[in-house]
């Protein structure tokens, strides 16, 4: 039975609103997340883990998916354009979206700057793309560290950070409802130890490495799951920096 | 009271015994650790997670080598490479190579065994392979040897490639303080000197660091 609306990235808020009204009882599935779905084998083996998640989740849930909301603008990477073509060819109904304007942008990002554990912060931010709950009650916490980047495929690395970690980069842009705000994406805090993360094979590595050098942070390029050494590197950086 | 500190690498384990402020260092094969009846105060390393307390390797290195302020401290072992840099006694930068780990000590040990070459007989060379990873390096060695290059020279070129990688990986510093098993590989040390000044720290920086951590905790 088809009862699920799937999506990746941050579909345009008007599109989400329209689909919510159209399919009031539908379940929502974030295709970006690694739920352990079997490898569909559609994409090359050496490829972005998040893009592989999109295909693996879509194929696994094909019988349930009503349609896929597919951001294809500068708010998502170029891979999305090709993904749309392939998924259409595989029989999925796709509704594309471009969310590049800043008219929805919020000044405050209470989740990113709260004292919640970092993993919870990032899970709340991604969940809130669809839920759109108000988190302004969360109190601001002075940062001692920062995490810059997209939600990693391996969310467990976020558990290495203290609760006083602020969220920066694209994830912060998502909370601010401005997924294509390059100025906000590059916002960093001088003097705060920051881990700059990008998923292997993602174009954001370009920015992550550059900003890590600029702000004397730690650049992490990670594929599917973190190795012991990657975890130890983050741990050492947070303790020694 | 006697205290033991352990840096258990993939192939070799370094042990520091401290008794009445007297220090004694030893190295054994990691696979023989299980035969020791010793309780380690703090341990580190890929195979060291069975001490009373486990410490991160980069943190151990930093506590062992903090006084070396004018260069990069590079620990190069059989499996990976990690480095740290201080400025005025404060942490400045670090990295830990965990992807191309096969291009370090374990690969060289395998090559020496495979081609029956003694490490002492290797002569440093300015020629080098571009060793982006050990597997690509192996392919070049095999190609060269099948074309008549001696295994000694081919392995030396591989080692120069690793030295060049280490130099680039540490962001091309003017001076490298070298820690780990590679301090005992003369060919590697001379190859690294082709690119930068090298000061040898020996194999025990990490266990020294563990002891310093112990001292700071028990003060």
Largest beta-sheet characterization of chain B:
5 strands, mixed
Give helix % range of chain B.
25-40%
Structural class of chain B: alpha/beta
Measured between the Cα atoms of the first and last residue of chain B, the distance is: 16 Å
**Count, helices of chain A:** 8
Strand order of the largest sheet of chain B: 7-6-5-8-9
Any guess at the CATH architecture of the largest domain in chain B?
Answer: 2-Layer Sandwich
Following the backbone from N to C, one meets helices and strands of chain A in this order, namely EHEHEHEHEEHHEHEH
Average pLDDT of chain A, rounded to a whole number, is 94
Please identify the structural class of chain A as seen in this structure. alpha/beta
Shape verdict of chain B? globular
Oligomer: heterodimer
Portion of residues in beta strands of chain A equals 15-25%
| Helical stretch tally of chain B | 6
Number of domains of chain B: 2
N/C terminus separation of chain A: 53 Å
List descriptors.
heterodimer; A: 241 residues; alpha/beta; Rossmann fold; 2 domains; 4-stranded parallel beta sheet; 8 helices; B: 219 residues; Nucleotidyltransferase, domain 5; 4-stranded mixed beta sheet; 6 helices
What is the element layout, followed by pairings?
The complex is a heterodimer of chains A (241) and B (219).
Chain A: E1 4-7, H1 13-22, E2 27-30, H2 49-60, E3 65-71, H3 79-89, E4 94-97, H4 118-131, E5 145-148, E6 165-168, H5 170-175, H6 182-185, E7 193-199, H7 204-214, E8 218-222, H8 228-240
Parallel strand pairs in A: 1-2, 1-3, 3-4, 5-6, 5-7, 7-8
Chain B: E1 3-8, E2 12-19, E3 22-29, E4 42-44, H1 57-65, E5 72-76, E6 81-87, E7 90-97, H2 105-114, H3 134-146, H4 151-169, E8 175-179, H5 186-192, E9 197-202, H6 205-218
Parallel strand pairs in B: 1-4, 5-8, 8-9
Antiparallel strand pairs in B: 1-2, 2-3, 5-6, 6-7
Summarize the structure.
The complex is a heterodimer of chains A (241) and B (219). By secondary structure, chain A is of the alpha/beta class. Chain A has 8 helices and 8 strands.
């Amino acid at each position: 039975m088809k009862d699920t609306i799937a999506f990746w990235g941050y579909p345009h808020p008007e599109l989400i609103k329209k689909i919510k009204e159209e399919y009031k009882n539908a379940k929502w599935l974030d295709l970006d997340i690694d739920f352990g779905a079997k490898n569909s084998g559609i994409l090359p083996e050496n490829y972005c883990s998040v893009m592989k998640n999109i295909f693996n989740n879509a194929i696994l849930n094909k019988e349930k998916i009503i349609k896929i909301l597919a951001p294809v603008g500068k708010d998502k990477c170029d891979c999305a354009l090709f993904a749309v073509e392939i998924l259409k060819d595989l029989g999925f109904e796709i509704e594309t979206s471009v969310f590049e304007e800043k008219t929805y942008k919020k000044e405050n990002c209470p989740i990113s700057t709260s004292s919640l554990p970092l993993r919870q912060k990032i899970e709340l931010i991604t969940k809130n793309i669809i839920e759109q709950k108000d988190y302004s009650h969360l109190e601001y916490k002075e940062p001692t560290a920062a995490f810059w980047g997209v939600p990693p495929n391996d969310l467990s690395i976020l558990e290495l950070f203290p609760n006083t970690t602020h969220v920066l980069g694209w994830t912060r842009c998502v909370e601010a409802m401005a997924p294509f705000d390059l100025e906000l994406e590059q916002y960093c805090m001088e003097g705060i130890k920051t881990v700059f993360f990008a998923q292997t094979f993602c174009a954001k590595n370009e920015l992550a490495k550059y900003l890590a050098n600029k702000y004397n942070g730690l650049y992490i390029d990670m594929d599917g799951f973190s190795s012991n050494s990657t975890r130890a590197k983050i741990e050492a950086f947070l303790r020694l920096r | 009271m006697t205290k033991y500190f352990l840096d258990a690498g993939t192939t070799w384990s370094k042990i520091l015994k401290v008794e009445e402020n007297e220090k004694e260092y030893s190295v054994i094969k990691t696979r023989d650790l299980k035969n020791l009846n010793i309780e380690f105060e703090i341990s580190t390393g890929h195979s060291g997670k069975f001490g009373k307390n486990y410490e991160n390797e980069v943190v151990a290195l930093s506590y062992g080598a903090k006084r070396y302020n004018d260069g990069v401290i590079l620990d190069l072992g059989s499996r990976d490479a990690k480095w740290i840099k201080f400025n005025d006694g404060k942490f400045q930068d670090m990295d830990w190579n965990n992807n191309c780990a096969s291009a370090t000590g374990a690969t060289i040990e395998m090559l020496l065994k495979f081609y029956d070459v003694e490490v002492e007989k290797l002569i440093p060379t300015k020629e080098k392979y571009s060793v982006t990873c050990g597997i690509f390096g192996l392919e070049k060695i095999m190609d060269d040897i099948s074309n008549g290059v001696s295994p000694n020279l081919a392995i030396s070129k591989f080692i120069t490639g690793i030295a060049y990688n280490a130099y680039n990986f540490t962001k091309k510093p003017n001076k490298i303080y070298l820690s780990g098993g590679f301090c005992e590989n003369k060919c590697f040390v001379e190859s690294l000197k082709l690119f930068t000044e090298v000061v040898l720290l020996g194999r025990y920086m990490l266990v020294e660091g563990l002891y310093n951590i112990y001292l700071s905790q028990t003060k």
